Amino acid sequence: QAGKPVIAYFYAAWCGPCMMLKYHTFSDPKIIQALEPFVRLKADLSFTESEKSREIANLYQINSFPTVVFFDARGKETFRFSGFVNSEQLISILDQKGKAL
């Protein structure tokens, strides 16, 4: 609705790589700046047995944590990745894939 691309971060609080992504990669000032054009969303799917968590995981086809999904301004998924990436890797992903947004 905002007319901006979206980054959606699906994670679980008990997931080590998820916390590394949160506290090391997403907190890096370079990443914060690179993601400024995006609407940034987080979905905590820690409670895998909850109906709502299963519904979200099924809707977005989340099979592992962490998973990061990018959508263009029209809401169409353009790319995704799973697992931990450091700041340099995420910058590289944005440089390569960001053109699709």
Topology, element by element:
Layout: E1 6-11, H1 16-25, H2 29-34, E2 39-44, H3 51-59, E3 67-71, E4 77-82, H4 87-97
Parallel strand pairs: 1-2
Antiparallel strand pairs: 1-3, 3-4
Strand order of the largest sheet: 2-1-3-4
Unreliable segments of 5+ consecutive residues: none
What's the order of the H and E elements? EHHEHEEH
Q: Estimate the mean pLDDT confidence.
A: 93
| Intertermini distance | 15 Å
| Overall 3D shape | globular
Annotation, overall tally of beta strands = 4
Number of helices: 4
Give the biggest sheet.
4 strands, mixed
Strand content: 15-25%
Q: Could you tell me the radius of gyration in angstroms?
A: 13 Å
- Proportion of helical residues: 25-40%
Structure classification: alpha+beta
Features:
101 residues; alpha+beta; globular; 36% helix
